[in-house]
């Protein structure tokens, strides 16, 4: 049995795509007879506060489904203040260094990036000719931060580029969730070993029952993080509600602004449902006519994992984010495309979607595509050949 350590910033009971992705990876490796351990901070995302069950602890060690989980101290914060966010990352990096000094580390380690600084700390301390370091890149930093407006091209940005370069250089294998990410890595290190590792979900496909498309207004749903990158608050203000009723599930930094907008503008046909568990969400999502996947700005390298999750549910998608995600929607005919950042085009596309169009997308057909092309098990089998 091969020992393998996964280092990540996000893990259940935290919610969200990053947490789900690493959880499924850990579970999948365990089922393939790996002895899996996970190194992660005390749960704090997305609230920026340590969860009640873990408050007052400096660390926590537990075993769940034969996976050992080490939770380390972090100065938790989701503040917009860059200094506080830096302190939060540095605090976890400090905890990682302490752990590395006092614990035996397996010969194979998977390191999640971003956060860039946490990945750098792990690579710096663990690089060794006798150890295999696998860097799992879900977003390209600092490029993504530049496109989101979080960074400017200055000395700090140049330093982050050097950190990024260092991480790639010393990784033995790089996993990327998009071809854009892998192309970027190869532009810096043409001979570096890479593997396309999409964020495919791992859950049982629900039984398909006949669903009646709404009469009158179509019911469109968004489910996920209400953060700056998704731009759901701006979306709420820009949508034309003539043809749709907009339902929202999730939490994040824009939640309060969205609730205030709804309260002050009752004429907007928006319903906010709060946060629900993933299992509950899967049950309610299939009741809607379509879902929207928005990004405030097109982010190079980003492919929202919602695409693959919604395909597994057979839910038609309206994609509003550009980039590689747009190409996937078009290639597999999973829904509709609106030009990234163009709200007039978005409303035009929505106005042209008819009940008959949704019926033509056909839930069974979408699920069949997901099973054939977005299969977690097949992808994991291919990855394990690279890991061993």
Automatic annotation (TrEMBL):
In its keyword annotation, does this UniProt entry include Mitochondrion?
Answer: no
> In its keyword annotation, does this UniProt entry include Transmembrane?
yes
Instruction: Write the record's keywords in alphabetical order, separated by commas.
Output: Membrane, Transmembrane, Transmembrane helix
**Which part of the chain is the Glycosyltransferase subfamily 4-like N-terminal domain?**
17-190
User: InterPro entries attached here?
Assistant: Glyco_trans_4-like_N, Glycosyltransferase_grp1
Q: Where are the transmembrane segments?
A: 83-102
What domain of life? Answer: Bacteria
- Name of protein: Glycosyltransferase family 4 protein
Organism annotation: Flavivirga spongiicola
């Amino acid at each position: 049995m091969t020992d393998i350590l996964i280092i990540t910033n996000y893990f259940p009971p935290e919610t969200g795509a990053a947490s789900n992705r690493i959880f499924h990876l850990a579970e999948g490796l365990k089922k393939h007879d790996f002895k899996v351990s996970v190194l992660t901070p005390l749960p704090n995302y997305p609230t920026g506060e340590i969860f009640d069950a873990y408050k007052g602890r400096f660390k926590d060690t537990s075993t769940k489904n034969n996976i050992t989980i080490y939770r380390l101290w972090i100065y938790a914060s989701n503040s917009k203040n860059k200094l506080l966010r830096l302190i939060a990352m540095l605090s976890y990096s400090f905890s990682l260094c302490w752990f590395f000094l006092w614990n035996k580390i397996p010969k194979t380690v998977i390191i999640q990036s971003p956060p860039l600084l946490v990945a750098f700390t792990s690579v710096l301390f663990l690089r060794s000719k006798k150890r295999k370091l696998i860097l799992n890149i879900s977003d390209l930093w600092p490029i993504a931060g530049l496109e989101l407006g979080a960074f400017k091209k200055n000395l700090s940005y140049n330093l982050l580029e050097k950190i990024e370069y260092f991480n790639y250089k010393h990784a033995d294998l790089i996993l990327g969730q998009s071809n854009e990410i892998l192309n970027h890595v190869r532009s810096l290190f043409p001979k570096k070993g890479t593997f396309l590792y999409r964020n495919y979900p791992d859950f049982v496909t629900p039984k398909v029952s006949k669903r009646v498309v709404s009469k009158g207004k179509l019911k469109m749903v968004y489910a996920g993080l209400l953060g700056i990158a998704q731009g759901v608050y701006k979306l709420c203000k820009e949508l034309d509600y003539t043809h749709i009723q907009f339902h929202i599930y999730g939490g994040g930094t824009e939640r309060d602004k969205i609730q205030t907008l709804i309260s002050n503008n009752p004429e907007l046909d928006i319903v906010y449902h709060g946060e629900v568990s993933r299992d509950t969400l899967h049950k309610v999502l299939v009741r809607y006519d379509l879902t929207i996947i928005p990004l405030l700005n097109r982010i190079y390298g980003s492919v929202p994992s919602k695409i693959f999750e919604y395909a597994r549910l057979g839910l038609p998608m309206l994609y509003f984010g550009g980039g590689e995600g747009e190409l996937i929607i078009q290639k597999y005919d999973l829904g509709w495309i609106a030009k990234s950042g163009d709200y007039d085009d978005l409303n035009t596309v929505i106005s042209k979607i008819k009940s008959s169009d949704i019926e033509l997308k056909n839930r069974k057909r979408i699920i069949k595509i997901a099973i054939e092309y977005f299969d977690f098990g097949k992808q994991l089998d291919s990855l394990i050949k690279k890991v061993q």
